[in-house]
Amino acid sequence: MLLGATSELWVDYLTRIEALRVSIGLEAYAQRDPLVQYKARASEMFTQLVEDIRGLVISRVFAYQPRPVEITPVETANLPAETTPSPQLDNGKKKKRRRH
User: Fold this and answer.
1) What is the DSSP string of 37-48?
2) How far apart are CA 58 and CA 50, in angstroms?
3) Residue 79, Cα to own-chain centre: how many angstroms?
4) Is 38 left (phi over 0), alpha (psi -120 to 50) or beta?
5) pLDDT, tens only, 11-58
6) How far apart are CA 21 and CA 83, in angstroms?
7) Whose CA is closest to 17, among 28, 6, 27, 9?
8) Whether the model pTM is above 0.70
9) Domain extent listing, the chain
């Protein structure tokens, strides 16, 4: 949820920053330093981005409705039968013990 909200809002943020970069040159006509104004507005926009991400994640968490999971019982008739060793295959031999 966090990654989805961040990626959605990040694209919008980058678009707004680009528009700010293009239009910040007009601040020089108002006798203000464009670099200082750019830093101040970009900082405000980033703070707003973080708040928007938090708000979107919280609203999605509260609106989330999990899907019901259907559990079907496992039928034992379909399982393969356990194989037991046949006494005929043993041929009367004793198993040797392994010593370590």
Assistant:
1) HHHHHHHHHHHH
2) 12
3) 37
4) alpha
5) 999 999 999 998 888 887 888 888 899 999 999 999 999 999 999 999
6) 75
7) 9
8) no
9) 2-63
Question: According to the model, what pLDDT value does residue 93 have?
Answer: 64
Say if CB 58 and CB 76 are below 8 A apart: no
Residues in the chain: 100
* Rounded-to-integer distance, Cα 48 and Cα 64, Å: 24
Task: Find the largest Cα–Cα distance for the chain.
Answer: 106
Terminal C-alpha separation, the chain: 55
Token code pair at residue 44: 């405000």
**DSSP per residue over the chain, as a string?**
-HHHHHHHHHHHHHHHHHHHHHHGGGGGGGTS-HHHHHHHHHHHHHHHHHHHHHHHHHHHHHH--PPP---PPPPGGGSPPPP---HHHHTTPPPPPP--
